[in-house]
Specification:
By secondary structure, the protein is an alpha+beta fold. It has two domains: 196 residues, FAD/NAD(P)-binding domain, CATH 3.50.50; 122 residues, D-Amino Acid Oxidase, Chain A, domain 2 (2-Layer Sandwich). The protein contains ten helices and 21 strands. Helix 2 runs parallel beside helix 7. Bound molecules: flavin-adenine dinucleotide.
């Protein structure tokens, strides 16, 4: 994969067909579909790529299928196949067979997708922060400089942290008061014990933490925890070390890792479109990371947003038709994820689940369904 060609801030054109805000998986897919259809498209990301972000780095079958259908299976050429989830709780542990997902670092995956976007003809500019003003113009900021760009359509795919629509009161977030927040870091190889091909998932009263080995041997750690847990600890590294418990083999490395956080996870928007605007990926709403499907939701809604934007630009559809399309893509999986996560907040339910799997290994297949549909794409075909 070639290096990512970037547009300089001064060279940004005053007008394009489409602006995509956010160069993550949703923004990347939307831009790819727009550029492939021949529309002048520019992607802005406020962070320089490659960048890591809080993510469990387990790409589930649905996300693999989106990449494969779009001819992007090669982006996963070095991804590590995952076979099982080791579910650990206060009262025991159980292994759930769960083949079909892969582990890949977000820094690698997202920059590869952006390189494909660029190869398809889109412009990419980062680090540039973008926001939509009241008149639909996009304001751009970079190192104290300000520019504006006009687009016939804007796809906002700026994730949970995004503020590109903050000046648009009609897109305000609704967030659950009981929501967990996300925390994550990548630690050096061997810092936390996790077998190759395994997702190690620890569930406790404060939330849950997942660990996976990345293709280069480093260990990705991602957790969803009660905000009060971190407030009481006045920091992130120590509570994470405590949650990981005896899985930690190198305490110093875990304490020194570059921990990042997220805002509240469970959130939604009252609308996902307006004239000239579509919203996709986490920016359109999120549930919880328990089943490890967020990347798939981002790839799926990003791809569909790009296709819908193409139809809007071609006069074949209206922006307002986007809301039910986007919600329809994720509704079933998000509901399953929320229900599973709620259930696992009860220590009794976790205990019962672990006991049932231990006593009846056949029940493990039923538990695996909580993590989504099995793969329809053999991993070997992606190589
Ligand atoms: C703890 C945790 C664990 C998770 N584990 C998994 C997992 O194992 N598997 C899985 O599939 N999913 C997982 N997820 C979910 C997954 O990380 C997200 O759903 C996915 O990254 C969403 O992609 P996105 O493209 O919508 O947003 P992002 O990946 O967040 O990308 C948004 C981009 O927008 C940029 N941006 C923000 N604001 C602006 C702005 N104003 N201007 C320009 N750019 C901007 C950001 O820099 C960023 O690059 C997890 C999430 C959490 C919190």
């Amino acid at each position: 994969m070639s290096a990512l060609p970037l547009l300089s801030f001064d060279s940004i054109p005053a007008e394009v067909d489409a602006v995509v805000i956010g160069g993550g998986l949703a923004g990347g897919m939307a831009a790819l579909r727009l550029a492939s259809a021949g529309f002048r498209t520019i992607v802005f990301d406020r962070t320089a790529h490659p960048r890591e972000k809080v993510c469990g780095c387990c790409l589930a079958p649905a996300g693999i299928a989106v990449l494969s259908r779009c001819g992007l299976g090669g982006l996963l050429s070095d991804a590590s196949p995952l076979e099982e989830v080791l579910l650990e709780a206060e009262h025991g542990a159980a292994v759930v067979r769960r083949p079909g997902s892969v582990a890949i670092a977000r820094g690698a995956l997202d920059v590869r997708l952006l390189a494909a976007v660029s190869a398809a003809g889109a412009l990419v500019a980062c680090p540039v922060s973008a926001s939509v003003d009241g008149s639909g113009r996009v304001e751009l900021r970079h190192e104290g400089g300000v520019r504006h760009v006009r687009a016939r359509i804007v796809v906002a795919a700026d994730g949970l942290h995004g503020s590109s629509l903050a000046r648009r009161g009609d897109f305000a977030w609704k967030s659950s008061e009981r929501s967990l927040i996300g925390v994550g870091a990548i630690a050096p190889a061997g810092a936390v014990r996790v077998a190759p091909g395994q997702v190690r998932m620890r569930v406790c009263r404060e939330g849950y933490v997942g660990v996976v080995r990345l293709p280069d041997g480093r260990v990705d750690i991602a957790a969803a925890v009660r905000p009060a847990f971190l407030r009481a600890a006045r920091g992130v590294a120590e509570p994470m070390r405590a949650m990981l418990g005896d899985a930690v083999t190198d305490e110093r490395a875990v304490m020194d890792a570059a921990w990042q956080g997220t805002p509240t996870l469970t959130r939604s928007r009252s609308r996902l479109s307006a004239p000239g605007i579509l919203v996709a990926g986490d920016a359109a709403g999120y549930a919880e990371p328990f089943t490890g499907e967020g990347m798939g939701w981002a790839l799926g809604t990003g791809c569909a947003a790009g296709d819908h934007a193409v139809r809007v630009l071609s006069g074949a559809a209206a922006e307002g038709e986007w809301d039910p399309i986007c919600r329809g893509i994720v509704r079933g999986a998000r509901l399953r994820c929320l229900l599973t996560a709620q259930l696992l907040r009860s220590p009794l339910a976790v205990k019962a689940c672990v006991r049932v799997i231990q006593a009846l290994p056949g029940a493990s297949a039923r538990v695996a369904r909580a993590f989504g549909a099995p793969s329809t794409v053999p991993i070997g075909e992606l190589r």
